[in-house]
């Protein structure tokens, strides 16, 4: 692995880094490029995270540079004020994390990190010099994931999940001693904030093939520490088949349908895969685990909705829906999370053919406003016709049902429908 001129290589990947590192050099701060960024550059991969450490507290300089760049278009904020760790976000979508050393020397700082493949540094003034106190370059060549010390997991138990993520995203194998430490210290995962655990699980699920990672977490007892003992032989061949089948179906759909309106739905992939894992691992504790992971309200809503099957009666009516509005209203009938239920039950599990699935999703996404399809008749108009304002909602629901069935298509039709079906005080 060629470690020459890594700073220049990063500048080629991310042109704005040239400007950033030039300003950092001019500041007089002694700084190093560290961690996963160095690892990825050595592997010839795109650098996703840019981390730097300095001898002195860099936060004042970082804030000043971010706010002064291009008329203040850079955004600076604290990641950990106590540790003086901050982040710069730029409009180009690039971020820099910068912090002071956590030890007296760069070598000591690196030795206190998680895995040897991340305990690498390059001085910003000496692009050809690689600092590698733990022989991480050799582990990197062998794709071996080895802890920096026996205190690695106890210092930050989230590393139990981070290690599994590296297995999923970069194809590393955990060495025997590191795996032994995982099994001994697995219960420590419950001392980590649920939000951090959730985010790591999402990163694992977003990887190309997370099954090996999940197997490691299971064998090491990390899953049992988080979710209790499994209720079935969930890691048998049947589970692996479920996961791979679901992943293939999702990727296939979005490969075929690359329209902007559908692209946002792919963000839910991690939720489908997480749902499969939790429902297979311990079905009776499924909802409890959603709360434990501190999922957002919307994420919980989606994951609670996914197990709810779509009736064959609803599916059999799809062919009769001849307009985009009728398709969109049919999706709305399945809310909350009608979109996700249709994609999961309709496409992923093969209950609905591809073309109707795409048509349903596109129609709803094109017409919905604030999570619902606008009503054909304004509520204020209905309010002028009734004494009981509770009838307004009933009237709008009635009109939408009649639209789905093809009996109503215009506001005038809707008005006649209301007068025929609701007990109005006709004025």
The strand order across the widest sheet is: 3-4-5-2-1-6
- Can you give the mean pLDDT? 90
Number of helices: 24
Total E-strand runs? 8
- If you compute it from the alpha carbons, what radius of gyration comes out, rounded to the nearest whole angstrom? 27 Å
What share of residues is helical? Answer: 40-55%
Strand content: 5-15%
What would the keywords be for this entry?
elongated, 427 residues, six-stranded mixed β-sheet, alpha/beta, two-stranded parallel ribbon
Describe this structure in words.
The model has no long low-confidence stretch (mean pLDDT 90). Helix 13 (237-256) runs antiparallel to helix 15. It is built from 24 helices and eight strands. The chain is elongated, with a radius of gyration of 27 Å. It is an alpha/beta fold and 427 residues long. Helix content is 53%, strand content 8%. The protein has helices at residues 6-13, 16-27, 36-42, 59-68, 106-111, 136-141, 152-155, 159-170, 176-185, 194-206, 211-219, 222-227, 237-256, 260-263, 269-281, 286-292, 297-305, 312-316, 324-333, 338-348, 354-367, 379-383, 390-404, 411-421, and strands spanning 31-34, 50-54, 75-80, 85-89, 95-100, 121-123, 144-145, 173-174. The strands form two sheets. It has a six-stranded mixed β-sheet. The protein has a two-stranded parallel ribbon with strand order 7-8.
Task: Produce a short descriptive summary.
By secondary structure, this protein is of the alpha/beta class. The protein is 53% helix and 8% strand. Strand 3 (75-80) and strand 4 form a beta hairpin.
